[in-house]
Amino acid sequence: MTRLRLLLPLLLALPACERLSEIGRAPALAPVTSPTAAPGYQPVSMPMPTPQAPTHGGNSLWRPGSRTFLRDQRAASVGDLITVLVSIQDTAQLQNTTEREREGTDTLGLPRLLGLESSLTRLLPNTIDPSALVQTNGAQTSSGVGTMRRTETVTLRLAATVTQTLPNGNLVVAGRQQVRVNHELRDLTVTGVIRPQDIASDNTVKHDRLAEARIAYGGRGTLSDVQAPRYGQQILDTILPF
């Protein structure tokens, strides 16, 4: 327990030391590496159709999968480059209105109870009416209005690399782009599975044609550091029950 108390401040200070080392300098760019060498990289495994023997057309100059008689310049093999067009325009609007009103009146009495109703005057000091012993009334009114509006727009172009060719011909692509402006670093990553038929003639593909797409756009730097809550506040927000 004593060791844990000593290590906890050190662990909390590590992120702060990293930020202190970048004071006066812009965030460092990540080195250019192979996407398959990333720590969390895993080959994609998806359901595949039954393999079929290729068919060859006799005396034909047209090659299956090619759009021209010349060599196809589109990405088709591991290591080829392809441009992914990211154009996300997400708009959501939700409005909910609820109103509720309830009124009730109850009256309870015992005008005849085996002749024992006369005994009530002896039990209770004041004169009572046996036919109206208990009378209640209540009214409830509640209303609520909720509105949510969200608008997100991301438009980017990113060159990705073909990292894997699946048995059915689909391509697994992964790309990363970093842009640093002054002391703010923007990081964009895209991964997914595409069909060769969805690749345009200019070797581009839209993001909505990517299966199992993973698109992340974020950043770090001076502005992001100011907007993010402190580590201590994040810990308290996680462990405090109230």
TrEMBL record:
It is found in: Cell outer membrane; Bacterial flagellum basal body. Its main location: membrane. Pfam families: FlgH (PF02107). InterPro entries: Flag_Lring. Keywords: Bacterial flagellum, Cell outer membrane, Cell projection, Cilium, Flagellum, Membrane, Signal. Belongs to the FlgH family. NCBIfam families: PRK00249.1-5. The basal body constitutes a major portion of the flagellar organelle and consists of four rings (L,P,S, and M) mounted on a central rod. PANTHER family: FLAGELLAR L-RING PROTEIN. Assembles around the rod to form the L-ring and probably protects the motor/basal body from shearing forces during rotation. This is Flagellar L-ring protein.
